Amino acid sequence: MIGLALTSALCCALALACGSAAAQAPETTAAMIARDIRVAETQYGQLLERLRRQPGFPRSLAKGEIVTVGPLDWTSGFFPGTLWYLYEATGQARWRSAATRYTADTAPAKFDKSQHDLGFMLGSGYGNGLRLTGDPSYRDAMLAGATTLLTRFDPKVGSIQSWDLWPGSGWAYPVIIDNMMNLELLMWAARASGEARYREVAIAHADTTLQHHFRPDGSSFHLVDYDPRTGAVRARVTVQGKADASAWARGQAWGLYGFTMMYRETGKDAYLHQAQKIAAFYMRHPRLPADKVPYWDFDDPAIPAAPRDAAAAAIASAALLELARHSDATLAPGYRVFAEQTLRSLSSPAYLAAPGTNGGFLLMHATGHKPAGTEIDVPLNYADYYFLEALLRLRASLPAAAP
User: Fold this and answer.
1) How far is CA 117 from CA 55, 97, 123, 245, 334, in A?
2) Enzyme catalytic residues
């Protein structure tokens, strides 16, 4: 099974590294990051070539073939976002050119009222493009998307509705933990426009999530269903996790990232404390593997033969590196060390694809939707995106004199 195979592969890699330690000094953090970026350039260069024959945004790999999606898929923005990160990492015009092209292709998302994922779809591409180029058209697209997202907010519930109602679901107003990731778009829009409504909605959503989504141990439910007439909680369930009461790994990473970001944006201590509580749950979990790449769900009874989720590991690493910046000296070093250890695992042959393999994607062994039987032990575009984001955050934290 993949859990045992990964453990064995990592042990072999570590053993080989130890055996050659006398002949070769350990790889520095800066060298590891530079190596990963070179691999990313090779892989994404090949991926771009393959896309000449296959339109769309690459999402994953199935039976050796690239799976592409359209601009209204929730993952569409991650590919242009990754290209922007490659431009930021290297300064090379070819990445800017490719990022510009694929960002423009996500334009239809800014008016899509049918889903909550506009922060992913627009923030990854347009947001990074605006940050790196200052293109005013990117600002306009982001504001349009933020305004569209507001249409899914209900003040009685105090949350942005995540999904439209599915036939037979029995839900009335479903909100998933992933939705925390869209609040960055609203916080940006409040600053860019000077209009408080975007910020007010983001804070209301974060406060409602803080109140209803978490267990005493810091773990989160995947989905909370509300009564839109009263705002009362109707149910706490899962869709992508193992069970209603289980801790779906990527959900924990979304919550960690989201509340860390909201603390950065607002300075509210409650958000910082929640992020630190989630971090403690995640980092100290007895079923977290030694390489710090979690199983897809912390409570899958198949552990250690359960699939891993490299995407959750990458998201958590990016979040912890930011959380370290906002935490005091008793906690910050631990967050940074944990994130770097995770990134070293993801940079090893157990997870980082060899150039020319994996369909052009960077990371192997991510899990998308295990209960649905889809995207299990595959590359995923958002795993690559947050991996590069974490690497750039780690690089920025290194001393200026580092080699």
Assistant:
1) 22, 25, 10, 24, 31
2) 117, 178
